Amino acid sequence: MDEFFKKLPFLDSVLKGIGQIMLQENRWTGLLFLIGIFMGSWQCGVAVLLSTAAGTFTGMKLKYDKSEINAGLYGFSAALVGVALAFLFETTALIWILIILGGALASVIQHFFIQKKIPVFTFPFIIITWVLVFALHHFTHIPPSEMLSAEVIPSKYDDFLTCTKGFGEVIFQGGILSGMIFFLAVFISSPIAALYGLAASILGAGLSQLNGEPIKEIHMGLFGFNAVLSAIVFSGVKKTDGLWVLIAVLLTIVIDDLLIDNHCLDAVGGVFTFPFVAGTWITLFIQKIFIKPKA
């Protein structure tokens, strides 16, 4: 199969870009993510393909570093822009155009920060999506997608499934199978990252419940997905890695709950992955203070 992908380098980069949503440079992870997204919504699946392809194609045309393109670094923020717009709005012609343009713009912004050696993670996706959601709400009459109004039916397994739903909500998928597939997709690439992410999802759900957050939203994974990403960033086999995972996850959960409770970002569509980015930035800053570089 590796030979197959060598003959189709663009497809390989697109799949790796989708995999990089959870920081995995793995085509099979990306393919499983794509399957899980299509299981939740064909619109979201097509949107992810279009936006990731647009971001990757933009990187190629602007002659960005080939190894960075091949690693999928110009695809993951683009992918999230696409799935977010398809999840939030009815997919009119304008939305499809914005999915492609947003994916291309995400690639340009990502490149700027890569050149500056600034680890921004999904920040390009956040900024673009906030701006587009604000503009679409204020200057168009495009209705919300049916997915937003879909009723979530409680089940007796909700407490158990909340941990994997934290994985699903990273890519706007609330389905049980999608969450399980996303967890498996990370596990085949990095078992330690998947297990740390699972623990972080449980911790996010538990602490948010203690904080009095709505149990329905906790069961949907909405208070776990940012913690999942923060855990994956710092995951590793060293004992100290566990400490940094814990610090990042706790910071992320606190930021997430504060922003949601105070409705700080409702006007631009919600917090998205900003708590993950903010929590990770703070943790990296703390690391810089306490960990001295080797001479």
From TrEMBL:
The record marks T273 as: Important for channel permeability. Its main location: membrane. It is a multi-pass membrane protein. It is found in: Cell membrane. Keywords: Cell membrane, Membrane, Transmembrane, Transmembrane helix. It holds the Pfam family UT. GO terms for molecular function: urea transmembrane transporter activity. The chain crosses the membrane at residues 31-50, 71-89, 95-113, 120-139, 180-206, 218-237, 243-260, 267-291. One of its GO terms (cellular component) is plasma membrane. InterPro entries: Ammonium/urea_transptr, Urea_transporter. Belongs to the urea transporter family. This is Urea transporter. It comes from Chryseobacterium phosphatilyticum.
